[in-house]
């Protein structure tokens, strides 16, 4: 009788231990499946914008205001990534807004290849946090100046660690060869990007926009440096298109407010580019 009692006690203990392990594991598994299903079923496809050096989260305020006046309008979330990887935010993403604008800027917004590499890492941290919170599985991205370099570095180094897909990338006045005006003199950054270009998503569509005041540069970035994007993207992504704009507001700092560039963004980067009866004029 004593042996039988001991056997029952041991069996009860084993069952208790198994349940203590099984129930939390099952709960965790259901939670993971629910989160994965939420991401898979998400209809949200934000437009993520990254400013260049010395610019803050407010860099694209005028652009977003103009686009919202031309289209049905979308909410805007402004994010700044601190040097410790934490985020500060302003604004919000409205319920049932499937194409909000998310601006990601950096506390350390200084120039230079080493800083740009750090910013790409910080962008990755912010991106992972935002995609987990808002459950989107695809997005489009726009980068002005060094913002385009940050997005390109993100694609070649960090993007494959996520299940979220960038469909379209538009870079504006992005110096793929930094300040170098001779494409034969490749900087270390351009060399590294060319070496890593096989990591780019094959389904990606890329628009590289350049501004010119003198047909040599936009006042800061040499046209030849922007054109070096072809060595990174051509024959690596689904589509690569380079577009050059000139005339009014074609200097580097004014490019995000250039009416022609606003038209390209509206026409090529937004899912619903026009209001009923409104058509973007990008022929100028």
Tell me what the structure shows.
The protein has 284 residues and is an alpha/beta fold. It is built from eight helices and eight strands; from the N terminus they run H-E-H-E-E-E-H-E-H-E-H-E-H-H-E-H. Strand 5, helix 4 (146-157) and strand 6 form a beta-alpha-beta unit. Residues 25-41 and 275-284 have low confidence and may be disordered.
Order of helices and strands: HEHEEEHEHEHEHHEH
Largest sheet: 8 strands, mixed
Report the CATH topology name of the largest domain.
Rossmann fold
| CATH class bucket of the largest domain | Alpha Beta
Residue stretches low in confidence (pLDDT < 50, at least 5 long) are: 25-41, 275-284
How much β-strand is present in the residues?
15-25%
Going by CATH, what is the homologous superfamily of the largest domain? Alpha/Beta hydrolase fold, catalytic domain
C-alpha termini separation:
97 Å
> How many runs of DSSP E, i.e. beta strands?
8
Rg of Cα set: 24 Å
Overall average pLDDT: 86
Shape: globular
Strand order of the largest sheet: 3-2-4-1-5-6-7-8
| Class by alpha and beta content | alpha/beta
The CATH level-2 architecture of the largest domain is identified as 3-Layer(aba) Sandwich
């Amino acid at each position: 009788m004593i042996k039988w009692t001991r056997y029952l006690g041991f069996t009860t203990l084993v069952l208790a231990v198994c349940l203590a392990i099984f129930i939390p594991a099952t709960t965790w598994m259901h939670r993971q499946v629910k989160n994965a299903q939420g991401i898979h079923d998400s209809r949200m496809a934000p437009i993520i914008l990254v400013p260049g050096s010395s610019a803050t989260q407010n860099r694209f305020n005028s652009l977003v205001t103009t686009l919202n006046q031309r289209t049905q309008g979308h909410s805007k979330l402004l994010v700044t990534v601190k040097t410790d990887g934490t985020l500060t935010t302003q604004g919000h993403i409205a319920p049932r807004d499937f194409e909000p604008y998310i601006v990601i800027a950096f506390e350390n917004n200084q120039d230079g290849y080493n800083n740009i590499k750090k910013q790409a890492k910080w962008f990755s941290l912010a991106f992972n946090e935002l995609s987990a919170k808002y459950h989107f599985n695809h997005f489009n991205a726009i980068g002005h100046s060094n913002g385009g370099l940050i997005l390109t570095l993100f694609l070649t180094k960090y993007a494959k660690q996520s299940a979220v897909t960038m469909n379209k990338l538009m870079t504006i006045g992005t110096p793929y060869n930094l300040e170098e005006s001779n494409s034969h003199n490749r900087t270390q950054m351009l060399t590294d990007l060319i070496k890593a270009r096989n990591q780019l998503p094959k389904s990606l569509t890329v628009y590289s926009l350049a501004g010119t005041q003198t047909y040599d540069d936009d006042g800061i970035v040499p046209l030849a440096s922007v054109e070096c994007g072809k060595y990174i993207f051509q024959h690596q992504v689904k589509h690569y298109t380079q577009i050059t704009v000139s005339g009014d507001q074609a200097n580097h700092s004014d490019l995000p407010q250039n009416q022609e560039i606003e038209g390209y963004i509206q026409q090529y980067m937004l899912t619903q580019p026009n209001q009923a009866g409104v058509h973007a004029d990008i022929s100028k």
